[in-house]
Amino acid sequence: MDSPREAESTPFLSLFSAFSYGIASMAMVFINKAVLMQYAHSMTLLTLQQLATGLLIHFGRVMGYTKLKDVNFTMAKKLLPVSVFYNANVAFALASLKGVNIPMYIAIKRLTPLAVLVAGFFSGKGRPPIQVSLSVVFTAVGVIIAALGDFSFDLLGYSMALLSVFFQTMYLVLVEKSGAEDGLSSVELMFYNSILSLPFLLFLIIATGEFPHSLSLLLEKANSLTCSW
């Protein structure tokens, strides 16, 4: 049984976690927008992100900071769709940020809970509580009203953002199913996602012509930043 002090700290920790998540989520959008305004090669950034994630988790395992099972080919095959949807979500989200202003991007991404509720209903999770359904529906209506009043409407940007919502929904549904059925931790899912993503992303940045120009431009910007310091 929890002590009174632990019981009192639980709501505070939950509130602190929610507040911290909100700050980090908002900051991530602004940072991504600022980076993309200076460096438009979003697929290269995504590739470097996945490479850094895989290396950090691997070295964390070697140093004993994280627990990670050996890579299993059967598990990797089952998680391949999860990786595809994750990278599609991030790729289209970054592409939409190039043309959509930040308030509208955040508003459009708020359609994700509605899409998740609909996908969960059709996948057999049942009908959610009426309070949850109403709050999600009202949020979606607010997004539509905001979009109608957006004078800087960018059709391509909106299309990319909506595709990002779709792929994020599919990713969340699949990752929940994979974690529940296979007992994978969040760190293990991230590691599988990174190693499965890299071959596909490397092929894309080469096929689209981003590489090697994007890498040389990134090094040039990094050097100019270092020199300014």
UniProtKB/TrEMBL annotation:
GO terms for cellular component: membrane. It is a multi-pass membrane protein. Keywords: Membrane, Transmembrane, Transmembrane helix. It is found in: Membrane. It comes from the Eukaryota. Residues 24-211 form the Sugar phosphate transporter domain. The chain crosses the membrane at residues 12-31, 43-64, 84-108, 129-149, 155-175, 187-207. This is Sugar phosphate transporter domain-containing protein.
